[in-house]
Amino acid sequence: MDLMEQTLRAGLPELGLRLSEQQIGTLCDFGRAVVKQNEVMNLTAITEPAQVARLHLLDSLTVLTAADLDGKKLIDVGCGAGFPGVPLAIGCPTAEITLLDSLGKRVHWLEEILPTLGISAECVTARAEEAVAQRRESYDFATSRAVARLNILLELTAPYVRVGGMVIAMKGAAAEEELNECGSAMKKLGLKLEQVRQFPMGDTCHSLILLRKIAPTPKQYPRRYAKIKQAPL
After folding, report:
1. What whole-number percentage of the chain has pLDDT above 90?
2. Which of 4, 107, 200, 218 lies at 20 to 30 Å from 224 by C-alpha?
3. How close are the terminal C-alpha atoms of the chain, in Å?
4. What predicted TM-score, i.e. pTM, was given to this entire model?
5. Is the dihedral of CA 172, 207, 88, 129 positive or negative?
6. Mean pLDDT within 223-229
7. What DSSP element (H or E) covers 179?
8. 201 Cβ partners below 8 Å, 6+ apart?
9. Helix then strand then coil, % of the chain, to nearest 5
């Protein structure tokens, strides 16, 4: 058993999660595939096996502690190397996972590697503010990790979520600070803060910010990204 698998196995009970041997094996296979591909493509700065398990695999799986994905549709906006979407697809194979990223090279790699590992997910190359035209309010959950500050991120994710669904923003130590900037954005986008869950990760703390969709997002959102960044809601 290598260090990635050891760290993953040790961390699952701390999250209250139980996965099959096959799921644990597939998670590690994907983690190793990311590290190997990172030799030729810029996917992640985290390549040490224990850190991959802790900061990529286990961090992604925290979403399963906050949301029942069984039979639900989830979109990972700005999925990058596939986090959190791919571990969620492994951890809850009955979920319908969409991986969305604007960088074609990354998405193409995911399209190639996932079937070889027996992982089912839809891979889409598009900008978040453009892909929503065909996917507005059609998901139960939208997740995102390390894409943008929360006041920008919410405008990119909320339009994908149906009323009654949830935006799950994965944030680091600045979660509360970013949340304090978002009162206006939440109101305009039809969101309401439900909970903030914190998970110790080494010498820092990662957070899940759970926002319930309580009203339809007005059609003018999302705006073009340059405008969102220039004048966040």
Report:
1. 84
2. 107
3. 48
4. 0.95
5. negative
6. 94
7. helix 175-180
8. 54, 55, 59
9. 45, 25, 30
Q: Do residues 143 and 165 lie in contact, with contact meaning Cβ atoms separated by under 8 Å?
A: no
Structure tokens at 231: 């004048």
Q: In what order do the strands lie in the sheet with 122-125?
A: 122-125, 96-101, 73-77, 139-145, 161-171, 204-213, 191-201
The pairing of beta strand 204-213 with beta strand 191-201: antiparallel
Cα separation, 30 vs 82, in Å, equals 9
Cα 174 to Cα 64, 123, 166, 177, distances in angstroms? 22, 30, 21, 5
Read off the pLDDT of each residue in 130-145 and give the average, rounded to a whole number.
96
Q: Beta-carbon neighbour count of residue 190 at 10 Å?
A: 20
d(CA 181, CA 122): 33
**Cα angle at 217 between 216 and 221, to 5 degrees?**
160
Write the CB contacts of 80 (distance below 8 Å, at least 6 apart in sequence).
43, 44, 101, 106, 145, 146
* Whole-angstrom distance, CA of residue 162 vs CA of residue 215: 9
Confirm if 185 and 233 have CB atoms less than 8 A apart.
yes
Distances (CA, A) of 12 to 20, 33, 41, 42: 11, 21, 29, 28
Q: Look up residue 55 and give its two tokens.
A: 């900061």
Sequence-distant (6+) residues with CB within 8 A of 208 are 62, 63, 66, 168, 169, 170, 171, 195, 196, 197, 199
Q: 96-135: per-residue pLDDT in tens?
A: 999 999 999 999 999 999 999 999 999 999 999 999 999 9
